[in-house]
Amino acid sequence: MIQISQLKLPVGHSDEELVQKVVKKLKITRDQIQKLTIRRASIDARKKPELYWVYTIWLELKNEKKFKDLKISPKEYVLPSPGTKELMHRPVIIGTGPAGLFCGLFLARAGYRPILLERGLEVAKRVEKVNTFWETGKLDTNCNVQFGEGGAGTFSDGKLNTLVKDNSGRNHKVLETFVEAGAPTDILYLNKPHIGTDVLREVVQNLHKEIEEAGGEIYFSSQVTDLMIEDDQLKGLEINHKEQIETEVAVLAIGHSARDTFEMLHKRQIPMEAKSFAVGFRIEHPQEMINESQYGAKKVKGLLAADYKLTAKTSTGRGVYSFCMCPGGQVVNSSSEEGHMVVNGMSYRKRDGKNANAALIVTVTPEDYPSNEVLSGVEFQRRIEKAAYEAGNGKIPIQLYGDFKKGQPSTMIGQVHPEVKGQYQLTSLNSILPEELNESLIEGIESFGKKIKGFNREDALLLGVESRTSSPIRILRDDKMQTKVRGIYPCGEGPGYAGGIMSAAMDGIKAAEKIISTFKTTIAK
C-alpha cells in the first residue's frame, strides 16, 4: 500500500476527477489501481471563495515497487490476549455513554458477557422524555439530556474529532465501529467528522443490539447507589438502594453530570481531586454570516454549514474560547436537576438550521472556588445553574449581546431569532457568572469580531448557562486504570479522562483492554 498526501481538487469535483488526479500524479494507467481509499480530507479556504479539498489517499497498485518512498504499513487495531486471573463474576459497566458502550462492546466481543447499568432509559423512550421536557418543562431527573442510553452526546452535534494522540489504532477503530453500526462512511476520513444527533441515536441502538447478541446485558433505570468493599477490593454494587450485584470488576463510565454518584464515591473514600473546567454562555449567529466569513459565500454547493474555532487571551490572562460549535444547529435545554438551568448545542446530520451556535467559555480552576473541598467545583456549577434558572423563570434565559455589554435586560429580539429546543425568556444574564468572567467574555467576543465579521454584532444572542463542558473532578487511577480500591476502573468524561465522544470511547476501549489482559474469558458465576 502507498500513501499520497496534499492532493488538492476544487470543491464540487467528481470521483473520476480524483482518480485522474492520482493517475497523473503517479504517472500510471488507471487499470493499475486496485483499490483507492480516501484516508483524510479537509477544506482549504485560504483563497476563498475558491475552495479546495485536500486529500490524503491510500492506494493498492498492481506494481508498487517503484513507489518505495510512498510505501506504508498501516497498523491494525488488535485486542490483547486474555489474561490468566480467574474472574468470579461477570464484569459490570456503570453508564452507557460512549465510554461505557465501547467498553461493553469490546468486552462482549471478547467473550466476557458484561452487564451494563444505566440510570436512564433506552434511546427511544429517552427521546420521548426529552421532547416532553422541552415542550412542557416537566423534568425527569434520571432520564434527560444528560442521563440515558448514549450519554449526553446523544443530544449533541455528534462530533467525532479529538485532540488525543493515538498510536494504538483505537481512534480509527472507534470510527470503523460507528460505520459498522450505521454511521456514514465519510466520518472515516473527514478531518472534522460528525454524525448528527439524529443518526447517532440509530447508531447507539445498533451498538446496544450487538452487545446483547454477543452475550452482554443492559439494564435501564438502574442507578448504582453504593459500593460493597472489603479490604480495598470491590465485592459488589448496590442498585437503586435495594438490589445488589456481586462483582469484583466495575467500570466507572459515569458522565460528568453524575453528581450524586460523585458524592457517594467521595463518601466511600474513593480518591479524587478537583480539576479545572470551563463555564460561559451559548452564542447564536445567522449561519449564513458564518458561511460568508469561512467560505466567502452564504451557501456553497457540496459543503455543509461552516464551523469555526476561536480562542483569545484576555488582559487579565484568562483564556476565552469557543467550544462544541454546532453549525446549523439549535441550543437545547440540558438541565438534569430541578431548579437549575443548563444549555448545550445540538445539530442534525444535515446541519440545515438557520443559526450557528457555540459555547463561549472561560476556564475556571480550583482557585476560583470558595473552598478547597474536592466537590467545590460541583457546588460552583450548581450556583450558576440556579442563577440561570432564576434569571429565566425556569426557561432558557436569553439576552442580546449589546444589552449584555450595557448590563441591561433584553426586551426584544433583533434580526437573529432564537433556534432553541425548550422554552425561553428574554431577560438579563449579567448576574449569572462572576463579574470577572463576564468581562472576560465581552473582551473575547470583541476580539472574535476581528476574526469573523459580525461576531460581535449587537443582536447576537447569548443563552445561559453552559456549565457542563467537562467534569469538575478527577477520580484517581493508576497505570492499570484502577483506583486504590481494586476492581474499580474509572474511565471517560465523568471521572475526568476524556472530553468528547471520541476520547471517551477510546478510554472505554482502553479499560476493556486492561480487563481482558488481566482476566480469563471463563467466568465462574
Largest sheet: 7 strands, mixed
Task: Count the DSSP helices.
Answer: 11
In the CATH hierarchy, the third-tier topology of the largest domain is known as: FAD/NAD(P)-binding domain
What average pLDDT do the residues reach?
A: 96
- Low-pLDDT segments: none
Structural class: alpha/beta
- Order of adjacent strands in the largest pleated sheet: 14-15-18-13-22-19-21
Q: What would you say this structure looks like, in words?
A:
The protein has 525 residues and is an alpha/beta fold. The chain has three domains: 2-70, Alpha-Beta Plaits (2-Layer Sandwich); 85-273 and 474-523, FAD/NAD(P)-binding domain (3-Layer(bba) Sandwich); 276-466, no CATH class. It has eleven helices and 25 strands. Strands 14-15-18-13-22-19-21 form a seven-stranded mixed sheet. A five-stranded parallel sheet has the order 7-6-5-11-24, covered by helices on one side. Strands 1-3-2 form a three-stranded antiparallel sheet, covered by helices on one side. A hairpin with a 5-residue loop joins strand 14 and strand 15. The two termini are 47 Å apart. The model has no long low-confidence stretch (mean pLDDT 96).
Helices and strands in order, then pairings?
Blueprint: E1 2-10, H1 15-26, E2 33-47, E3 50-61, E4 85-87, E5 92-94, H2 98-109, E6 115-117, H3 123-136, H4 170-180, H5 197-213, E7 217-219, E8 224-230, E9 233-239, E10 243-246, E11 250-252, H6 259-267, E12 272-274, E13 277-286, H7 287-295, E14 311-313, E15 319-326, E16 330-333, E17 343-346, E18 355-364, H8 376-391, E19 396-400, H9 401-406, E20 420-421, E21 424-426, H10 435-448, E22 461-466, E23 473-475, E24 488-490, H11 501-518, E25 519-523
Parallel strand pairs: 4-25, 5-6, 5-11, 6-7, 11-24, 16-20, 19-21
Antiparallel strand pairs: 1-3, 2-3, 8-9, 9-10, 12-23, 13-18, 13-22, 14-15, 15-18, 16-17, 19-22
Helix pairs in contact: 2-5, 2-11, 4-11
